[in-house]
Amino acid sequence: MNEKKINLTLKIWRQVSPKSPGNFSEYKIAVSPDSSFLEMLDEINNDLESRSLEPIAFESDCREGICGTCGLVINGEPHGPLRKIATCQLHMRNFKDGDTIYVEPFRAKAFPLVKDLIVDRSAMDRIMEAGGFISVNTGSIPDANAIQVPKDIASEAMDAASCIGCGACVASCKNASAMLFVSAKVSQFALLPQGQTERYNRVEAMVKKMDELGFGACSNTYACEAECPKGISVKNIARMNREYFMAKVKSDNVEV
Amino acid sequence: MIKLDSKVPAGKLEEKWTNHKFNMKLVNPANKRKYDVIVVGTGLAGASAAASLGELGYNVQAFTYHDSARRAHSIAAQGGINAAKNYQNDGDSVYRLFYDTIKGGDFRSRESNVYRLAEVSNNIIDQCVAQGVPFAREYGGSLDNRSFGGALVSRTFYAKGQTGQQLLLGAYTAMNRQINLGKVKLFTRREMLDIVVIDGVAKGIIVRNLLTGEIEKHSAHAVILATGGYSNVFFLSTNAMNCNTTAIWRAHKRGAAFADPCFTQIHPTCLPVHGEGQSKLTLMSESLRNDGRIWVSKKKQDMRKPNDIPEEERDYYLERKYPTYGNLSPRDISSRAAKEAVDDGRGAQGQDAVYLDFSDAINRLGAKTIEERYGNLFEIYETITGDNPYKTPMKIYPAPHYTMGGLWVDYNLMSSIPGLFVAGEANFSDHGANRLGASALMQGLADGYFVIPYTIGNYLGGDKPTLVKTDHPEFDKVKKEVEDQTAKLLSIKGKRTVDDIHKQLGRYMWNKVGMARNEKGLKEVVEEIKELREEFWKNVNVVGNSNDVNQCLERAGRVADYLELGELMALDALDRNESCGGHFREEYQTEEGEALRNDDDYAYVSAWEFQDVGKWKLHKEHLEFESVKLATRSYK
């Protein structure tokens, strides 16, 4: 436990609604280094509310880095300066007394702003709904051990499946591409024996939806991997490109 | 006036569910599309129910207050999910899983429900594997298992330390498939604020659109609540920030009995509180207790660093008191033992904390093996605390984690309001007075995939409920009441913030309705909560307006409900003059300080009927034990 507080200046993006103009508002706070970044925002909000001022709208839920709800651009980086953590896992001991911190929402064409630091990331769900599943009904299935999966394949699929759907990859990409997000799901199912039946239809459907929704193309700068709180590898993008190519060669969806 | 009928089928324990499934009414496949079902909540129980009902052909409307159906707090479960597969050939069976769960719950749950849970546990693993859930594997390609508290067999399936995430994403993808097929319509950013009951039957819900503030009416032939537990009544808990009791509490106020509200689980391995600004507590998976050893100093107020305390001056109190189960003793027992050590002045460096030490396991197995098993958990720990658990023992302390209590349901998971079903943590059904590790995921998915899809059919095919349109006057009446409450909250404009009052309630609950309770404290806290509730309605400051994103208003509505629920929890704890599972009454303990159950007088489920704010009527469902013998729960 650390009793000594650090003094910070925060410049936080405030925007009442999607159509109104936004701007940075300044807040000063003395905060415990043991506090998390979001606990610091809680403190600011509690102070605003006690003065009958509207609190800063931001989203978070589990505060353990797994639900993917939170996501702020802190000093220009999605989820802040540390690697492999979500915003909720960032603690104030990583900042110095006297620092000025800029806080903005995730910005992307496919993520319209809702209010202050909240954006609408539902486009990612639309991609998942288009094909990010294995078509199996409840019941009517073999014993779990009837499907054997080599340990290294299971673990590679698990690494891809770790994606928390926060959208940091999109926010970090200069093209606002969702390739890392989509490729993580495509890879998980392409690797596993359970995913083989729909392998090519899946990747086609998901990529098609992704393009429709206004996400950009991959620029191979790997900013997405660097900012991903779960360290999802860009190898998944390479695998998705292969899958997509094979799909175009093999699938029945002939485009004329 | 509520009449409790558990509807437990007759016959032998092993045959009840099979016979019941045969005896249930079926809905003709062509008729299923004529039925609408509302599912509130898209966690494990809600998403799996929505997906399975969509597959069957029903029209499902699913609601979540999140921006996406993938965010529910099921996602944070780390350790694993139990099933009686006996893949390890170590003597497991459906009966053993059933027995462990009944015993773990300290004989305060229904035999029939728990047996069914154990029975369908195996189907869940099959289902999840088929969906592509990447469970951990052995080198030969088979599924791997580990052990968990309260069991002497290895029956826990896991996906790294992210089992809940992978199972939820499995259910989410199954539901997405139904959304794609048009059988499930998903409503995100909607918070349920009331249910509509017409002629005693559930006919729909009232929700607030969290983006526009619009109060919406939705109707269906049946309503399922899968809205999770109420640990956030303590303010600080391992639950996510938005977890709340509002959906089940408002249903309770419309006639659904609330069962065993005082049965709350305090999880032994959470990170200690860092200070006043703390917003929630973080759980470290119980699986850490497979290799970590828990200890405190033998001396009081020992301020030395843990590595400076020599071996002979350490008290490995769980191993000492419970040699058979040791560090894998069940959660309630481990939590209480930690509290005892801290109350005795032997907390880690004078704090409310005990040590969880991996040095023996690292010496025995090597740091690499430990990293493979728990690497991500160790990283989480270091990120939050700044300490490296490979070098210095973790500091942990118990925190509110799970609520075994919830809305009362019969064997069909229907509440005391016909047409209103309750699944997952939101109901009280399977865990009695204490839940064993890796059983919450099992229950959520059992309810959603394998129980409700059958029992809903029985209700729709048997009762043949009609659909009431949302222009019915009762829908407008309930909608108006919701709007009035919103207006009232916004009009108070008092001096205290919502969080400030919530924190005060949390302190009351933790101190007097937490790990240890007594008559005097409970009587005091009932009065304190009443006063605080009065103050809330006079002096809270809810900022902003109702037709916009307003998170302050959202929190205020939830805290208003906690201020009523907290009182009921205390009253329930006061009624139960015994100690069992997570409910420890200081007056009722053995000479060795263990829980002293009273089966003659308290082998019942408390089901509380709401009469008015602060006024309830208690109904009792007596628990019949036909298969197991009530025994003192010993883990020594």
Oligomer: heterodimer
- The tally of beta strands of chain A, per DSSP, is 7
Order of helices and strands of chain A: EEHEEEEEHHHHHHH
Name of the CATH superfamily of the largest domain in chain A: Alpha-helical ferredoxin
Helix % of chain B is 25-40%
Q: What is the CATH fold-level name of the largest domain in chain B? A: FAD/NAD(P)-binding domain
Biggest sheet character of chain A: 5 strands, mixed
Bulk shape of chain B: globular
Computed over alpha carbons, the radius of gyration of chain B is 24 Å
Spatially, the strands of the biggest sheet of chain A line up as 2-1-5-3-4
Detailed description of the structure:
- With 256 residues, chain A is an alpha+beta fold.
- Chain A folds into 2 domains: 6-115, Ubiquitin-like (UB roll); 121-250, Alpha-helical ferredoxin (Fumarate Reductase Iron-sulfur Protein, Chain B, domain 2, Orthogonal Bundle), CATH 1.10.1060.
- In chain A, 34% of the residues lie in helices and 12% in strands.
- Chain A has helices spanning 37-50, 122-131, 151-161, 168-172, 179-191, 199-212, 223-227, 235-250, and strands at 6-14, 23-31, 73-74, 77-78, 100-104, 113-115, 118-119.
- In chain A, the strands form 2 sheets. In chain A, strands 2-1-5-3-4 form a 5-stranded mixed β-sheet. A two-stranded antiparallel sheet of chain A has the order 6-7.
- Chain A is elongated, with a radius of gyration of 21 Å.
- The mean pLDDT of chain A is 96.
- Chain B has 636 residues and is of the alpha+beta class.
- Helices cover 37% and strands 15% of the residues of chain B.
- Chain B has 17 helices and 19 strands.
- Chain B has helices at 16-23, 29-32, 44-56, 94-104, 111-130, 163-180, 246-253, 317-321, 331-343, 359-365, 367-385, 440-463, 473-492, 498-512, 519-539, 551-575, 599-602; strands spanning 36-40, 59-63, 81-82, 156-157, 184-187, 190-198, 201-209, 215-219, 222-225, 258-259, 264-270, 293-297, 314-315, 354-357, 394-403, 406-407, 420-422, 604-612, 615-622.
- A 5-stranded parallel β-sheet of chain B has the order 5-2-1-9-17. In chain B, strands 11-15-14-12-13 form a 5-stranded antiparallel β-sheet.
- The longest helix of chain B is centred in the C-terminal third of the chain and has 25 residues, at 551-575.
- The two termini of chain B are 45 Å apart.
